[in-house]
Design brief:
Elements (H helix, E strand, L loop, with lengths): L3 H4 L5 H4 L1 H12 L4 E3 H7 L4 H13 L3 E8 L2 E8 L1 H27 L4
Amino acid sequence: MANKKMMKPEIDKIIHERTRLLILSYLAAGDAKVVPFTELKERLDLTAGNLSVQLRNLEEAGYIKINKRIVGRKPVTDIALTAAGIQALTGYLDEMETLINRVRNVSDMNGRG
């Protein structure tokens, strides 16, 4: 009989949404600790509205920190990954890797690999 973990992976639903996963991955993989809103918008090819909504969800989960300031009379928004965000993303990736490996193992045992 399969164990419960195999039957029901614990996938973080906040991160699992495509756009939020892209945002967290971009923040985690980059060299910069803080990324401007405009850079995220352009590099991930997102609308300002969609990006704003997804950033709000990530901020509410504690995965990112948003800093808004005025520079030369223009609003500037910067985004940074938090320690909780790094931990959550790492956990998510570990869970997905486990799930992928289980599927591959089953496929190999069934002669589909």
